[in-house]
C-alpha cells in the first residue's frame, strides 16, 4: 500500500504528526491488534513535535487533544483581521503590486505543500491537478492560505479556482474585506451663533 509513496507524500504525512513505520513494525503492530481483538485500535507511530509548532488549523481533528498548539484567533465572516496581517500589507499597494504579492503567497504555499524547491518552481498558469494536487493536499493548501490571509476559505478552492493565478485573484477581495472599517466620526455640533445685542435706537 505504501510502495508508491514518494518523498513529498512522506513529508506531508510527517507534517500531519504521523511517523513512518517499517514493514516489520507495521506487521508486528497488526499482529498485536489482531491478538487484542479490539476493533477500534489504530496501530500508528505518532510524532507530535511538528504539530506543536504548526498553526492550530493544521492539526488533524483526531490529534487536537494530544497537542497544545498556540491558539489562533478565528476570523468570522465580516470580522477584522489582526493588526499587521495581510490586509495591512496590501494597504497602499497598487493593483499590480497587490496581485503580485498575492500570487507570491499562493505560489509559496503551493510549493510548501507539494515539496517544490520554491515559489518560482510553481507554474502560476498551470492547473492545480496538473501540479499534483489531490483532495488531501487541497485541504492542506486551504488551511495554509487561511492561516496566512486570516479568512475562511472553502475546501474546494483548488477546484473552484483551478490555477494559482485564479486563486490569487480570488484572494484579493477576501483579504481586503478582513480589514476592519472604522465607523465615521460624529460631526461636532455647529457653534451657536452669537446673540445680537439690541441697538440703542431700537431701545
Could you describe the 3D structure shown?
By secondary structure, this protein is an all-alpha fold. The chain has two domains: 7-63, no CATH class; 86-177, Orthogonal Bundle (Non-ribosomal Peptide Synthetase Peptidyl Carrier Protein, Chain A). Helix content is 44%, strand content 2%. It has nine helices and two strands, in the order αβαβααααααα. The protein has helices at residues 7-15, 23-36, 49-52, 86-90, 95-114, 128-131, 135-149, 157-160, 164-177, and strands at residues 18-19, 45-46. It has a two-stranded antiparallel sheet with strand order 1-2. The protein starts with 6 loop residues before the first helix and ends in a 26-residue tail after the last helix. Mean pLDDT is 76; it is low at 72-83 and 178-183.
CATH topology description of the largest domain: Non-ribosomal Peptide Synthetase Peptidyl Carrier Protein, Chain A
Number of domains: 2
Instruction: Name the CATH superfamily assignment of the largest domain.
Output: ACP-like
Task: Give helix and strand order, one letter per element, not per position.
Answer: HEHEHHHHHHH
Task: Note the beta-strand portion.
Answer: under 5%
CATH domain class of the largest domain: Mainly Alpha
What is the CATH architecture term of the largest domain?
A: Orthogonal Bundle
Secondary structure tally, helices: 9
Assembly state: single chain
Strand order of the largest sheet: 1-2
Molecular shape: elongated
Portion in helices: 40-55%
Measured between the Cα atoms of the first and last residue, the distance is: 109 Å
Mean pLDDT: 76
Structural category: mainly alpha
Major sheet characteristics: 2 strands, antiparallel
**What's the total count of β strands?**
2
